[in-house]
User: What shape does this take?
Amino acid sequence: MNRLEQYIRDRKNLFDEEPMPGHFERLQQKMNRKSQRRVALRWCISIAASITILFLVGIFRQPAGKQDIGKIVCENSGDMKSCYLSKMNAVADRIEALSKNLDLWDRQQIMIDVQNIIDTANSGFESEIPKELPKKQAKAILSDYYRQNLEGLEMIEKKLKYYEL
Assistant: This one.
């Protein structure tokens, strides 16, 4: 502590002097620049955090690998439509088994809805796709169409499983 006290005693006369003109303005400008940097830094950090959160949500919301494998199998098969229809029929059979405990009216309604989904998928949607589209793009559209119908049936199956519990 002696060194600090000695330093203050030696320079006591400097503490009594008024600062040079413009000193406070320069100090205020420096402080403003620092606060602007902090604001910019906060914005950058918040944007980076938001992007990271969106990225992580996208990763965790990816469908399970089982669905991806089924999609790949059907896309690479010779007849994508029949592959998806066979998967839809398998899900329809499971739905029928799960709905056996329901009353007759509800069971009929569910099975009518299931049959409508399968009939819609089998209706010839592929003939409505413009011939001008590249094959890869047309195949992607068909795959999405059949997959959405299959996912609709799988959603009914999940609801029935939940109802059964």
